Amino acid sequence: MARNMPDYLLYLETLLQRNSQDTSLYELYQRTKVGYLGESRVDREWADIFLEQKHYLFHDYQITNLANFTHQIDTIFICQSFVLLLEVKHIMGRLDFESRTHQFIRTKSDGTQDVYRNPIDQIERHRLFIEILLRKWGIGLPVIPAIIMTSASSHIGMTPPQYLIFHVTGLRTKLQQLFKKYSPTITSEQLTSLKELLLANYERKLFSRPAIPPETVLGAICPHCQPAVRLQHWRGKSFQCPYCTKRFDDAILTGLHDYKILFGERLTNRTFREFFGIADVKVASNLLAQLNLEGIGERKKREYIIPESVTWNKV
Could you tell me the residue range of the domain that residue 223 belongs to? Predict the structure, then answer.
């Protein structure tokens, strides 16, 4: 199961292109991107490891327990000897795991400290749940929780000895140690069955878009000017930049692609006008008629469905 860019990260990236001066949005995007890049760094390490033993990898795995609470596990590795659960963190500085207080403390180079939610508690929660599932499915495998740090500037300090906590560069060595410690306890057929059960119970992350008015987002933007500039002076199928004066024939097509990411696949004449800054209803109607969009409903209630690839209708 490959890891894909999270919908939320794609949403933030698209929104930031049209609101490049929003510093709080930029900071949120950067934090989200750092987490994703950290997980991708571990994925690259997996790709460079050759294992003769039959195994399966599940990245960005999500499942719901009986209490209707979600478990989001960065990576699950299964083989005939054990199940390895990975929690990935990309944090710089000295990192201490306090067993007594259940705190995770980051000390920066200037001596200041930040306290985060303890990833040990997170991975322990996942371990207990996966163990329950394995018993339910009649599969006798030990479940091993591990925490991986991906930043080159991470200095792993105090850690509880009973947990695997290491830098991503040590993944290969840790796997070799686990294979030496644990012997196969299930058959190849049982491992395949476990893979199928995990796939059958996997739930795709559902992304709920924040309620942002279309008129507050720049629909047609100049690809050259920074910060983002709303294109104006519509003529035919193109818009003109008020600063560099260049015209762009694909501004609406690009804008509709991003509208789908930001607001969903449906739009109306009104939301089309608000997003692209077109005041005239008839102008918007003519443009929508020239686009390859499926229409549903009549008159004021008519909605248009944005396809995967937006094109102009051939005249």
Answer: 214-305
